[in-house]
């Protein structure tokens, strides 16, 4: 652990020091350090890739360690070979302790024994910074682990790294003056999304088994969509947030939530169940005491569902590849025996007022953090904090009344919507995640397809469902000139489409359930995943 004052340093010096420390922390594990032992040397690139590809889920990790095919230390070193971050010494110590426990007791510590995990740079880990992409938060190490990290470690998970995020977290791309920009693994000119873009990049490069992020407007779902991954955004009181640093802390009416990201559906379900089974409400006063309900998960997984498909939020129309993939998924679900119907939200998505909650303080919270480090604003964050003046307590109350009214209207629409064929009510929604796939850096703007579900606090899962295709999307692309955009954001999105540059980019879909129905949304998403991806 290294500390120093940032007040007497230029922001560029602070950033350079942090990046230098990160490089130094890697030296022992690259073979460049003379103290590296043969047992601790990194596996070669081919062996590392083979291990991280083959052991990609929680179940496979437990199976491999239990059968002695690999130790926790060996698996950790294979994953370190895919990363460039700074918790490796502590992670290896923890992995060795797990190996010793297994040798002595012949059993695993818990359901996450030896599972390599990484964290968005918001989660407090004792002895390490939680910067949120702010220069001013560098060299201010946490005094203790946050609740989630403490629980994960107790179940045997090995925390090997923290990952990049945008300055303040309040953007759906990943860039900041402290660590720099994170790029998409398929094209460095494109963003991996955000705000949990560092985790998405690590998962896409097989650098971790489970990545933990946060989501206040789409921050685990958007990068998962852009990188072909799986993610859960739970309702706000289901998973523990205590000890997770966040901008605009104290803004409780559109709260940020913790969510896992994985490379397969099984891991998403298993890690969520593991955390809930560990009774997070005993450690975080905001967590509701709702145990894991296997019957909800199994019911959604095993029976025909009524799935309402939202193709357009009424604000920004989706690019042709997004529309095609959504239609293909809907058709496949119908062919598999599910009842598929349309979901037309009318003006409900247009009236979503998340941003007014984010900036109720006139941007003061974020501005203070930026000024503390003397760093420049990234353009999107600067635009966010300059949207208006702080509002009064009375005006804040009026916002809350508007929020409750919109929540009630969405609930009423859900309750009143019935499938024409069977008369059954809607089980889950199926929607786009974004109106586009991954885009060039600085081009992300509209997050209406995700942020509305933060606003009404519904759980949502993202899963991969296809990709942009020059062949499959060519005809629809030719017809784009006939469309007349309905507003400036719609026009921006339409004009940004580039089939040649976006060819091959992943496309996800979003599955949404009612509030606190995490088991149901995971079960439904797993059923959809089996049909779409054959898993």
From TrEMBL:
InterPro entries: Amidase_dom, AS_sf. Keywords: Hydrolase. Transmembrane segments: none annotated. Residues 83-522 form the Amidase domain. The keyword Hydrolase applies. Belongs to the amidase family. The keyword tRNA processing does not apply. This is Amidase domain-containing protein. It holds the Pfam family Amidase. GO terms for molecular function: hydrolase activity. The lineage of its organism: Eukaryota, Fungi, Dikarya, Ascomycota, Pezizomycotina. The active site is at residues 120, 195, 219. Substrate binds at residues 169, 195, 216-219.
């Amino acid at each position: 652990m290294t500390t120093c004052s940032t007040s007497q340093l230029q922001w560029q010096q602070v950033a350079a020091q942090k990046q230098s420390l990160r490089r130094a922390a890697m030296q022992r594990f690259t073979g460049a350090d003379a103290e590296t032992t043969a047992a601790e040397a990194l596996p070669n690139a081919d062996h590392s890739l083979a291990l991280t590809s083959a052991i990609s889920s929680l179940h496979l990790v437990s199976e491999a360690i239990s059968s002695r095919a690999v130790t926790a230390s060996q698996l950790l070193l294979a994953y370190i070979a895919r990363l460039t971050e700074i918790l490796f010494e502590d992670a290896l110590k923890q992995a060795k302790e797990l190996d010793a426990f297994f040798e002595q007791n012949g059993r695993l510590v818990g359901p996450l024994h030896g599972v390599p995990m990484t964290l968005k740079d918001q989660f407090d880990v004792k002895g390490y910074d939680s910067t949120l992409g702010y220069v001013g938060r560098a060299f201010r190490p946490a005094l203790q682990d946050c609740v989630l990290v403490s629980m994960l470690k107790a179940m045997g998970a090995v925390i090997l790294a923290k990952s990049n995020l945008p300055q303040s977290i309040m953007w759906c791309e990943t860039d900041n003056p402290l660590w720099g920009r994170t790029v998409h693994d398929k094209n460095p000119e494109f963003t991996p999304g955000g705000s949990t873009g560092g985790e998405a990049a690590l998962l896409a490069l097989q650098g971790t088994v489970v990545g933990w992020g946060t989501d206040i407007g789409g921050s685990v779902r958007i990068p998962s969509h852009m990188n072909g991954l799986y993610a859960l955004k739970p309702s706000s009181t289901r998973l523990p947030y205590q000890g997770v640093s966040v901008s605009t802390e104290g803004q409780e009416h559109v709260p940020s939530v913790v969510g896992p990201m994985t490379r397969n559906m099984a891991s998403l379900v298993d890690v969520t169940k593991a955390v809930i089974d560990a009774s997070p409400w005993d450690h975080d006063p905001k967590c509701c005491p709702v145990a894991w309900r296997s019957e909800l998960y199994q019911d959604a997984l095993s029976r025909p569902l009524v799935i309402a498909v939202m193709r357009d939020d009424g604000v920004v129309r989706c690019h042709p590849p997004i529309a095609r993939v959504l239609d293909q998924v809907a058709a496949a679900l119908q062919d598999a025996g599910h009842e598929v119907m349309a979901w037309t939200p009318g003006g409900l998505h247009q009236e979503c007022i998340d941003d007014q909650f984010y900036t109720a303080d006139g941007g003061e919270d974020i501005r203070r953090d930026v000024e503390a480090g003397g760093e420049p604003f990234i353009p999107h964050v600067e635009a966010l904090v300059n949207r208006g003046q702080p509002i009064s307590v009375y005006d804040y109350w009026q916002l809350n009344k508007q929020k409750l009214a919109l929540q009630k209207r969405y609930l009423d629409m859900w309750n009143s919507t019935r499938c024409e064929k069977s008369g059954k009510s809607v089980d889950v929604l199926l929607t786009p995640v974004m109106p586009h796939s991954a885009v060039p850096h600085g081009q992300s703007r509209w997050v209406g397809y995700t942020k509305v579900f933060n606003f009404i606090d519904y759980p949502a899962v993202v899963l991969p469902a296809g990709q942009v295709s020059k062949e499959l999307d060519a005809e629809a692309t030719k017809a784009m000139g006939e469309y007349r955009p309905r507003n400036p954001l719609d026009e921006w999105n339409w004009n940004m489409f580039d089939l040649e540059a976006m060819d091959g980019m992943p496309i996800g879909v979003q599955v949404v359930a009612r509030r606190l129905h995490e088991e149901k949304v995971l079960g439904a998403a797993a059923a959809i995943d089996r049909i779409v991806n054959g898993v």
